[in-house]
Each structure stands twice: as structure tokens, then as C-alpha cells.
Specification:
CATH class: Alpha Beta
Strand content: 25-35%
Number of domains: 1
CATH topology: Transcription Regulator spoIIAA
Number of strands: 6
Structural class: alpha/beta
Largest sheet: 4 strands, mixed
CATH superfamily: STAS domain
Shape: globular
Strand order of the largest sheet: 1-2-3-4
Distance between the termini: 24 Å
Radius of gyration: 14 Å
Amino acid sequence: MIELKIKGGRSKTQLGVLTLREKLTIEYAKDLKEGLLKALENTTRLEIKMENMSEIDLTCLQLLCSANRSFKAVDKEIAFAGEPPDLFKQALLKAGLYRQGRPAPESEDDYFRMNGLSL
């Protein structure tokens, strides 16, 4: 399940919280993409909250990587709300996107940082 809440009314700073529950698989990729695009259009900062994650696939990891770059391109913030679950980190590691214990590269072109994770 994917749910976006936007807080802040008409102020210049609008916080979005995108809650991702249970599965992040290709079946949910369209919903994730729509939530990320809506957040990009309507927020200045997006927090991604993961709850009770049971499955994550490469499709959704790629969408999150793309969202991070899109937010940065328009000087908006994107971050995890708290520590992402181990399942998420393991999916990144399996996909070759998580560089556990190593510093980020000089160039952010190849990877991105979100709450200390170098992806």
C-alpha cells in the first residue's frame, strides 16, 4: 500500500510523507510512481516512511533512485523518515546499489545519498 499525505497548507514549505507498506514490487510500481510525481509537484520536502516491508524488487528501487535525482534537480529534499528496514538495505545490496560501509564517491552522478545510505 502506498499513501501520500501533504502537510503545510499554503506555506512555502510543504512536507509530504509517502508511506510504503508491505510490498514494493512491480505490481505497485505505478502507484509508487504516481505518488512520487505528485509529491514532486506539490511538496518542497518528501519523507519516505517504510512500514512492515515484506518484499521489494528492482523496479521500485529504480523509481526511488530516479525520484531522488528528480527532487535534487529542482532543489527539493527527499529523505527517509527514520531508518529504512533491513529488507530494503538487503534489496539494495543484492541489486548492487548499496555500498555498505564505504564512503560516497566524489561524484554524485553514479549514486545518491539519502539519510547516510549511499545508493
